[in-house]
Design goal:
With 446 residues, the protein is an alpha/beta fold. The protein is built from 15 helices and 16 strands.
Length: 446
């Protein structure tokens, strides 16, 4: 009787241990599973790569039943189209989202403001800032005219709609667009732009725990304190897309491609510049498929390059070359669509590139022209300027011995046999000659 009882107790203990280890015991008594949080890092300009990365993260968080998804953000801004995609996904997310501006020193400027406000919980680390969402031109100046008013009005209404949807400071959101206001982490908390300030991820989850958020039209209480954190890195495709979406990268690839093809055309057969240039152009074209390109800017760059090449062959005393540099710089400034805030080429890069490309093409072109205008080293043309010995009197016709061969020659003035004769030109198999000074000269044959 005792042994069966002991065996039964042992079986029960083993069963309870198995259930506890597999999580069935907790569910049997109504306990919630341990919370899990998916962490994404968005660092850099908001682009199609960022939108794709966040979409993939939301899909994973939903399919794997994560308690919440955290986006650690540090961005100077980016494409408004990509920002709208991200905001739409965050507002419709079936998983609670926390947008966290971090680490210290990071910022959420321009497009980043909309992403922060679109999260169920908005947070910032100490020493971070948020704001300045005014649309700007590629040169950094504000958009002007009717287009500027339309873009600014649309962006401001977009900011207010997002802030209102998440119950945040609508007036500040509008000022961030219309007046380019910014705020530190503490100021943003006092103004109701964000929900909390946290030093690190653990403190963020602890402070977010217990908050009620709306997900899919329903209220949900966040239970994320001490949650297990799973980091989702960008995929190789997303990293490549992020690299291509950088306007400075696209600009440099285009310049390298143009320069490589120019070197190949000016020195046919070298292959390496042509292959590298073609590859760089292909990369730049892939970038231009992602970025909003302004056709006028691209045409101005091409015109500038053509004018720089033309300066080599035209005696314009630098006028054509100067026009080429001006066209190149203007095209660089307006290469990207001005209605997309935050997408422009760095001005210092434009100045350096203009100087480098102009100088490189002028140097290479000068060398090409010198080669083309230089004296031939082989063939019949190489005989021009050479000096030979008259074998039979040239008056006006005779013969001249040159380079081991006897040539028919003619001259406008008589040249006696034994004298020297310089070649002026070649007409078929007849040399046009003139008397040469009686002294030792290079090229005398015979």
């Amino acid at each position: 009787m005792t042994r069966p009882l002991h065996a039964a107790i042992l079986a029960i203990v083993l069963a309870l241990g198995f259930l506890a280890s597999s999580g069935h015991l907790g569910r049997a008594f109504g306990a919630e599973p341990a919370p899990r949080v998916l962490l994404l890092h968005v660092d850099g300009a908001v682009s199609p790569a960022s939108a794709d990365y966040i979409q993939a993260g939301l899909r994973q968080a939903e399919s794997e039943r994560f308690t919440a998804m955290v986006i650690e953000l540090d961005t100077p801004g980016g494409l408004l189209s990509s920002t709208r995609t991200i905001v739409k996904d965050l507002l419709a997310s079936p998983v609670p989202t926390i947008v966290y501006v971090a680490p210290s020193g990071a910022g959420a400027a321009s497009a980043g403001v909309f992403v922060v406000m679109a999260g169920n919980v908005a947070a910032m680390a100490p020493g971070t800032n948020i704001g300045a969402s005014t649309p700007v031109q590629g040169s950094g100046a504000e958009l002007s005219g009717s287009m500027g008013k339309k873009v600014k009005s649309f962006t401001a209404s977009f900011a207010k709609a997002v802030a209102e949807q998440r119950g945040r400071n609508v007036q500040w959101a509008a000022k961030a667009v219309n007046k380019a206001v910014s705020a530190t982490d503490r100021e943003a908390l006092e103004l109701g732009v964000i929900d909390l300030v946290a030093r690190d991820l653990d403190e963020l989850l602890a402070k977010a725990d217990g908050r009620t958020v709306k997900v899919g039209g329903e209220s949900r209480v966040l239970r994320v304190a001490g949650a297990m954190v799973a980091v989702r890195p960008m995929s190789l495709r997303q990293r490549a897309l992020s690299f291509l979406a950088d306007p400075n990268v696209a600009y440099l690839m285009m310049l390298a491609g143009l320069l490589g093809l120019y070197l190949e055309l000016s020195h046919p057969g070298t292959l390496v510049p042509g292959v590298v240039g073609g590859l760089c152009l292909a990369i730049s074209l892939a970038s231009f498929q992602i970025l909003p390109i302004d056709t006028t800017g691209a045409l101005l760059i091409v015109l500038g390059v053509l004018l720089l090449v033309a300066e080599i062959f035209l005696p314009s005393f630098g006028i054509v070359g100067a026009a080429g540099v001006v066209s190149f710089v203007l095209g660089s400034l307006f290469l990207f669509d001005q209605s997309e805030p935050g997408i422009y080429v760095d001005r210092a890069l434009i100045g350096s590139a203009a100087a480098a490309v102009g100088l490189a093409m002028l140097v290479v072109g000068t060398l090409v022209v010198r080669t083309m205008r230089g004296r031939a080293a082989t063939g019949r043309e190489a005989l021009v300027g050479e000096v030979g010995e008259v074998r039979t009197r040239v008056a006006p016709r005779g013969t001249v011995f040159l380079h081991g061969e006897l040539w028919q020659a003619r001259s406008r003035e008589p040249i006696e046999a034994g004298r020297r004769a310089r070649v002026l030109a070649i007409d078929g198999l007849t040399l046009e000659v003139e008397p040469a000074a009686e002294r030792n000269e290079k090229g005398v044959s015979g």
